[in-house]
Design brief:
about 190 residues; alpha/beta; Rossmann fold; 7 strands; about 40% helix; globular
């Protein structure tokens, strides 16, 4: 018997929020966040956990950063949006509902804007939301902590990339454990 808030590969879905080119060089901790996002993506692809990717106004902010994009499986849905919350996009909500998954790992940018509003809306829709802190940031470091505190108080579950992947793999007996171990050495 496992605790119901531990991530399960058959119940989980990862949402990558707006990790776009316009943030390169202006996001606080860009390189560190991007390294963690890459490991998260590679890990969930290895484990077969589905992904949904969003891009906020790509005409102005560019598309998903190449470092992240290269790890997305062919056919990974990319939802273009203009609302801060991913849930403001009907296409996003439809994809989420169609997945049948109730655990949502939310990673991406910016912590105080699109991530924060998406997390709150997902919680309001009854999803269990996990937020790996090492995959989120904002342009200004001072706005990250208040956003983080607010999301956690609303009911989001704090986590990290390593913790998320270890919950998803569950056991060293998994055929994917060694691959995940190698990935985790990169962060």
């Amino acid at each position: 018997m496992r605790h119901p808030s531990l991530l399960e590969p058959q119940r989980a879905l990862v949402v990558l929020v707006d990790v776009q080119e316009a943030y390169r060089g202006v996001l606080h901790g860009w390189e560190d966040v991007l390294r963690h996002v890459e490991v998260l993506l590679r890990g969930v692809v290895l484990l077969g956990v589905p992904l949904v990717v969003t891009e906020q106004y790509p005409k102005g902010l560019g598309h998903t950063a190449d470092e992240a994009k290269r790890w997305l499986p062919a056919g990974t849905p990319v939802v273009e949006k203009q609302s801060m919350s991913c849930c403001g996009s009907a296409a996003f909500v439809e994809r989420l509902q169609a997945s049948g998954r109730r655990q949502v790992v939310v990673a991406g940018l910016e912590a105080h804007a699109c991530v924060n509003q998406t997390v709150h809306d997902l919680l309001a829709l009854g999803y269990e939301v996990h937020v790996p802190r090492d995959t989120t940031s904002s342009r200004r470091a001072t706005v990250v902590a208040p956003a983080w505190e607010r999301m956690m108080r609303a009911g989001a579950l704090p986590t990290s990339v390593e913790q998320s992947l270890l919950e998803l793999v569950r056991t060293a007996e998994s055929p994917h454990f060694k691959g995940l171990q190698r990935l985790l050495k990169e962060i």
